[in-house]
Structures are given as C-alpha cells and as structure tokens.
C-alpha cells in the first residue's frame, strides 16, 4: 500500500486514457472522476477499479469518444442514448442536463439508456449539491443479487443516490441495494474480518457474516431483506421504462456488465423560497442529529456524506492509499 | 375477529366522518381510502387506524374541510400548503396534481407541507399506476426511530412509495425505513411470535427478534442498518426543503404527529415511446422473476404489490377481517 497525491493519481489515469483513445479534455475529466472517488474513500469504485475500466475500453464495451444524444423531450423529462460512452462522463453530463431542465421547470428528469457503470454514484450527488440542486438518481446493474425468496442472482444491486446541498457539508447518500458490495466483501475477506452484520447467505442457505462464504455463494443480502429486494426491482424497471433501455434481465444476457439504464432527477432548490427558515434548520441539522444520545458512550452519529468529507480532508493531506499492484498496472497503462 | 364486507366497512366510516364534520363527497372519498387499505391487507393503516384518526379530528389536528392551496409554481414543480387537511385526501389530491403536471411536462413534482399522516402510502402508488403513471412519493413522520449510532428516536421511519403501472398487476412498493412498523411489532407481540429477523434493539442495546422488547425500548431497526438510517434522514430533509414544511425535528416538537411534509413525483410513462418493447418485458417480468430458483423448494418469489393483490381478491370474496373492538368503536362513531 502506497500513498499517492491526488494530482499524481489523476495524471497517471489521464495519460492511460489518452493512450486508450480518449481526447484530451475527456481523458482529464474521466481521470478526475476516478481520482475523486478514491480521494473520498470510495476506493472500490475509484482508482482501484481503473484497470478493469481500461479492459472494458479495450474490449469495446466502453467507447471513449461516444457522447449521449437526445432521443426525446417532453419538456422537463428527456430520454438520452448513452451510446456506450464512459459511464462516469455520461452520468456527469446527464446530471448537468437534469439540472438545466430543473433551472427552467423546477424539476428535471433524464432517462439514460445504453450507458455504462457510473462508478461512484455519490460523485453526481456531490456535483448537483455543489450547484445548489437536490439529486435523486439510480442505475441498474447486471444480475448480482438474489431477489428475496430466490436462490439465484436475478436482481441487481441497483445503487440509489440522494443528495441535498448544505453549506456546512453536503448530504450525500450513495447506497446499493445489497448490504455490502462485492468490493466490500472482498475487502473484509482480505483483512480476515467478519462482517459487522449478516451480509448474505452461505452455501447452505443460512444467513452469514463470513465474507468468503458469501462471495462463494454469490448471494449477498438485500438491504432490509424483502424491502431492499423490492426497491431493487422497482428501481430497475423504472430505469428501463423511463430510459427505454434494458432491465437487469436484459443486461444479464450480455457477456459483461455494459449497456445500463439510469435515471437522473434534479430539483432546483435555489428557486424555492424559504419562508420558515428551513434551510437554516437543515444547516443546523447536524447539531440536532449529534445531540441525540449515542448508542455507545462517546459514540458519534454521522450524517450521510460526513465520513467521505473527513476521508477527503485526510487523503488530500496524506495522499490517497492505493494498492501497489494497481499502481503498477496503471503506470504500465500510462506508458511510464 | 369478524369479517365485514367492503361496502359495509366503508359505509360505517363514511357515516362517522359525516358526524365529524366532513362534507358528503369528502366523507365518501376518505372512508373509501381507509377501507381500501384494509381490503388490500394493510390493516394497521386502514380501518383499524380509523378510531385514532377520528380522535385527531376531534383534537383539531386534522381539519375535515381543509383543502390544499397552491403556494408556488415553477412549471413542473409546485409547492402546496396542506392546511392540516385529512392526510389521505390531501395525498390523493397531490398525486393527481403531480400527474397533471406530468401530463404536460413529462414529469411533475408537488411538495406538500402542513399535511397529515397519509395512512397507506401504497394507495397513491396504485392510484398513479391505474392512470398509467409512475410515482415516487414519500412522507416524513414524527421521530420514531433512532438514527444509526443513536439510542434515542431522532429520525422518522419516513415511508417511501415507488409504483409502476403493469397491465398484469401494478408494481407497488410501500416501505417504511424501519424494518417493522410499530403496528407490525404489536401484531407479532399479540400473536406471541418472534420476528423473522432482528427488528430492533432491546433495553440492553442488543439486536433483538422480540417484538415486546423493541416496543419497550422504542428502538426499531432501520432497514439495512446504517443505509436505511441515511435514507430516512435524506427523505425527511428533502421533503422539508421541497415543501417548505417541517422536518422530523420540528414535528417532534408537537404534542402529536401532525403537520407533515411530503413529496409526490409522477412520470407520464404513457407519453414515452417503447421502441425496444420494454413494456412487454415489464409485463413478462413476473415470469422472469418467478423463473429464478427459489430459496426453498416449492417457494414462491413475489413481486412488490402481488401479496396485496392476492389479499384484495380474498377479502373481496370473504369480507375484510376486522378486530371486534375496532368494529364496535367505529359503529359507535357512526352513531349506530
């Protein structure tokens, strides 16, 4: 494990992307989104994922220069074709588009089909919050989680992002519908740790805290058991219907996870009056939350997005922790 | 426990509402929404809850004849003041309003402040689906669930509704952010049953399947532990900011649970073309889902809304099960 400065990390990925056929501005923007995910502590969907992303470009599943095209406009609701462009660039562009619609109509919605893994969903929540907008966005995935009552993975973990701007620190929630991502399960296994709560089922079908057993069975637990399973199904089908793209079912018929469907809903909160001082109360919300009695003496209650902000500050100062193997791979991709 | 026909149940509540000061059409509509919740098996938020609703009317916290008024329009986003009208009538009206906005802009959003408990959230999901629209809606509540890491109830369980129309049976998810509602916990306790999964914490702060212990501690478990806790906080603050109304914090300062904030987002799916036959695939979705290998041999995988539809058919035929005590209370309220 090394610690690498943000700029150095972003620069290595940018050079790799140029070699993969990205134009200069797109290479810079794409690398920055990867580096920011790691900066904020979402290592599994940042730099550490980059070699896999590069392999998808090489395979033709991610097309470096493809940009989304508008297919349909109904005023505040638009449908775009992502043309298999890079998932993070597509998602950033569609977040901006949903916000542009919200500027004129209060709310704006984009359905995006035929796109790719957006990597860290929280990136788009932060992006909207920085611009004073609320964001509700979600993506579908390849089948990677059993629906409640099923043994085989027929549902996606379909991450959902909800974000609100707050001057003292944006509120950003980025949650997959499985209790733990595969990346998190692998990290627990590699550290030889048990999960803090039951995170899936073992080969015998029993709830388990053993990350290796869950990785072997491919049966992660949905968030809230039957509830997260239901939400996963609805988010998937809503993304497919709104975007006109594939559902988890269709994505599962491909050789790899590409051609996803996503929804971006932005609300322009800046245009809403604030007669009762609600914004000040949201600003003071952290005080309210942290004034609650903690479960454990001396314990701290975090708001969604707080840990990421703390990690960001630390990683900016100390450098971003990266796996030696990944660092070597990316430097090779960059031609160093 | 008696079984009472839908019309008889609705009629008793309608007569009670007339005596409580409701005009005839509003009494009929309000009673119907209560009766439909019980018809679909959501007993805790239907007929069984009616006496408590009546007591809120008597206390002045619910105003029978108050209708929402428009406060602000930004095109596809509107803000309404619910004026403490009956929560289910207000929510039905705002669902219709969000759909009207969606008819002209593709998507429509209503923020509703100063309203009341909407009872069964799924009612509005079904209502939108019947009209060919998707609905995403949520409400906040009084503080009734500890945020993750907290001992005291500082968060709401803030139910979320997501619905999609489907000719073969609408997909409707209605989920509170606690794993079990208080009503469900009471039902398990009264039947002397253990919860199927850990549903909260006991007095010692340990995860528990004992409904009585959780009812005593007032510490229900958030859906997905830290994840549902985070989603609860975001839904609450989003409802407050969009509607300009109170957050869970403000509601907790009142003597009872009234003056809530809600959001209704509708999408007019009927105006979206269907080039790749996605609608047919959503229609066939149940086949896909139920073709997955079940966890238990002979087990059935349900889609969100399926159990309600099955219960509805059964209750239409056999009558709706009602507690004898509630039936007596409502008949007294009706002046029988």
Description of the structure:
2 copies of one chain form a homodimer. In chain A, strand 6 and strand 7 form a beta hairpin. Chain A is globular. The model of chain A has no long low-confidence stretch (mean pLDDT 95). In chain A, the strands form 4 sheets. In chain A, strands 2-3-4-12-5-8-9 form a 7-stranded mixed β-sheet, sandwiched between helices. Chain A has a two-stranded antiparallel sheet with strand order 1-13. Chain A has a domain of 162 residues: 2-Layer Sandwich (Ribosomal Protein S8, Chain: A, domain 1), CATH 3.30.1370. Chain A is of the alpha+beta class and 336 residues long.
List the helices and strands and how they pair.
The structure is a homodimer of 336-residue chains.
Chain A: E1 2-4, H1 6-19, H2 24-39, H3 50-59, E2 69-73, E3 77-81, H4 87-105, E4 107-115, H5 122-130, E5 133-139, E6 145-146, E7 153-155, E8 160-164, E9 171-175, H6 182-190, E10 200-201, E11 207-208, H7 211-217, H8 226-243, H9 248-251, E12 260-268, H10 278-283, H11 285-290, H12 306-318, E13 320-322, H13 324-333
């Amino acid at each position: 494990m090394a610690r690498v400065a943000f700029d150095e990390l972003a620069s290595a990925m940018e050079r790799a992307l140029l070699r993969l056929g990205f134009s200069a501005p797109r290479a810079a923007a794409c690398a920055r989104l990867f580096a920011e995910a790691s900066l904020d502590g979402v290592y599994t969907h940042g730099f550490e994922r980059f070699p896999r992303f590069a392999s998808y470009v090489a395979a033709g599943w991610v097309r470096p220069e493809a940009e989304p095209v508008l297919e349909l406009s109904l005023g505040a609701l638009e449908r775009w074709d992502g043309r298999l462009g890079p998932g993070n660039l597509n998602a950033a562009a569609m977040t901006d588009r949903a916000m542009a619609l919200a500027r004129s109509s209060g709310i704006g919605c984009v359905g995006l089909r035929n796109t790719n893994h957006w990597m860290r969903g929280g990136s788009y929540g932060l992006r909207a919050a920085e611009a004073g907008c609320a964001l509700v966005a979600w993506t579908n995935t390849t089948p990677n989680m059993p629906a409640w009552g099923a043994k085989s993975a027929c549902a996606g973990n379909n991450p959902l992002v909800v974000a609100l701007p707050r001057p003292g620190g944006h509120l950003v929630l980025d949650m997959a519908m499985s209790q733990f991502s595969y990346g998190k399960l692998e990290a627990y296994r590699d550290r030889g740790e048990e999960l803090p709560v039951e995170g899936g089922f073992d080969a015998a079908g029993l709830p388990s805290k053993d990350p290796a057993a869950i990785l072997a069975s491919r049966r992660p637990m949905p968030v809230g058991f039957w509830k997260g399973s239901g939400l996963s199904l609805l988010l998937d089908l809503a993304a497919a219907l709104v975007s006109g793209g594939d559902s988890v079912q269709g994505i599962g018929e491909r050789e790899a996870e590409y051609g996803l469907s996503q929804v971006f809903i932005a609300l322009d909160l800046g245009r809403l009056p604030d007669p009762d001082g609600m914004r000040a109360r949201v600003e003071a919300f952290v005080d309210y939350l942290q004034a609650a009695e903690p479960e454990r003496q001396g314990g701290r209650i975090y708001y969604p997005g707080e840990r990421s902000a703390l990690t960001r500050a630390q990683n900016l100062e100390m450098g971003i922790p990266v796996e030696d193997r990944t660092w070597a791979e990316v430097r090779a991709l960059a031609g160093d």
